[in-house]
Every structure is written in C-alpha cells, then in structure tokens.
Amino acid sequence: MPDFFDLYDYRRRNASLYRERARAILAGEDAVETWQRFRAGRDQLFAAHPQSALDEEQRKQFKALSYFPYNPAMCVVAQVDTDIEAATFTVAMNAQEPMTMTRAARLHFELEGQAVSLSVYWLNVYGGGLFLPFRDATCPVESYGGGRYLFDTIKGSDFLPVSGVATKERILLDFNYAYNPSCAYNSKWVCPLSPPENRLKVAVSAGEKNFHLPEGQSK
Q1: What pLDDT score was predicted for residue 217?
Q2: What is the DSSP letter of 146?
Q3: What average pLDDT score do residues 48-65 get?
Q4: What is the pLDDT of residue 2?
Q5: From its phi and psi, is residue 72 left (phi > 0), alpha (psi between -120 and 50) or beta?
Q6: How many C-beta atoms lie closer than 10 Å to residue 148's C-beta?
Q7: Coil, strand or helix at 91
Q8: Which of 160, 202, 200, 116 shows the shortest CA–CA distance to 21?
C-alpha cells in the first residue's frame, strides 16, 4: 500500500518549487539562476524522496536529470483562446475505468519564428486540473519519445502568470522547465501522453532530455 503521507509530502514539495520559481521570475531575478535552483530542488526529490519516480535501485545510481542548455528564446507569452470546441479524449486506462481529459483552451504563440499552438486540457480525475502535454521534433532521439509535460496542476507543476495580465488572456510558457512523465523513468508508471493535436513539428531544444543512468546503466 502506498504511503499517502509521503505522497502528500512529495506533491507539497513539488508545488513549493513551482511557487518559488514564479516568485523569482515575477520579481525579475536572474532567469538562469532561478532555473538552476529549480533543477537542484527537483534532483533532490528524485534522489532522496520515497515517492520519487525512480525505484530504489535507480535512486542509488542517480546523479542528476539531464537538460538542454537554458534557452531564453524558449520562454514565450501565449495567447489563451477559450472559444473552442471542448472535446473529450481518453488518454489512459486502468483496471477500473478510462481516464479522460477535456480540451479547455488553445494556446497560440511563436517558437523559432514559427506560429504554433497547443491545447490545454482539464483532467477529469481527482478534483480536476489543467494539463499541458506536448511532443516535438526532439523526440525520440534527444527527448522522451512519448513527449513531455509543461504543467500538470494536479501534481503541483504550474504555468507562469504574465504580470498584470489576466490568466484567461495570456500566460507565460517556459519550455526550459519541460519535464518527462513518470513513465520515462521506468515501466511501473502509466502516464497520459500527448494527443496528436499537441505534436509540434518544431524542435523544442529546451527542458529535460532523455533519462539515462550513469555509466550506461539501463532504466
């Protein structure tokens, strides 16, 4: 049986990392230093917390997660369009019932000089939450083949507000904080992955890369 107090503690600590990130960015602190502090905090959770996505053997060998170099061009303001068709998708199955998510908004922005868009979803599990998965041209060679997440508010990761602007109008997307789903680390996890509409042709060379243990150890 899982230790629910450990799980609660992990999510609390993870959410705290994102709150500190938002505070630092809105305060105008150095973006690279803020990112490095965030990475260090996440590495600590992966290395030592009993609710880490890594199993016990992996934690013994783990040093740090691998990232692309920080790229300021991968931090963009997105226009939020909520005047869309709210389609529902089945994204994963468990022993009891399908897991579904509903399209909540479409985000429009530019990356590498290209106009692109991604859908944000509302996860229809637990108490509900906003979720942004994506897959891009770095998959599967440089980043996880199933794609990555930018935020999943149920689990404590979050998007960034634009100072002085309502969330329903614009939000800040910083792909330097893109991260792998838990299933990228070992096979015990089942994760919702990106629907076809969130597969980008552009290479998002920012955020977390493929997971490998040191010295060629397997996942």
Answers
A1: 43
A2: T
A3: 95
A4: 62
A5: alpha
A6: 27
A7: strand
A8: 160
Closest CA to 206 of 119, 143, 120: 143
| pLDDT(205) > 90 | yes
Please count the other Cβ atoms lying within 10 Å of the Cβ belonging to residue 54.
20
How many whole angstroms separate alpha carbon 205 and alpha carbon 140? Answer: 12
Beta-carbon contacts of residue 203 (< 8 Å; ≥ 6 apart): 112, 136, 137, 138
Mean pLDDT for 62-83 is 97
Residue/partner pairs of 114-121 with CB below 8 Å, 24 or more apart? 114/201, 114/202, 116/200, 116/202, 118/78, 118/198, 118/200, 119/84, 119/195, 119/197, 119/198, 120/80, 121/89
User: 175 with 206: CB under 8 angstroms?
Assistant: yes
Of the pLDDT bands very low, low, confident and very high (cuts 50, 70, 90), residue 97 is: low
Task: Print the domain residue range for 59.
Answer: 4-216
The mean pLDDT value for 126-135 works out to: 92
Is residue 184 predicted with pLDDT exceeding 70? yes
Taking Cα atoms as reference points, which of 146, 129, 177 lies closest to residue 24?
A: 177
The tally of domains found in the chain comes to: 1
How far apart CA 48 and CA 191 sit, in angstroms, is: 22
The model's confidence at residue 191, banded by pLDDT at 50, 70 and 90, is confident
Determine the Cα–Cα distance for residues 156 and 166; give it in Å rounded to an integer: 21
CA angle centred on 191, ends 185 and 197, rounded to 5°: 115
Does residue 95 register a pLDDT over 90? no
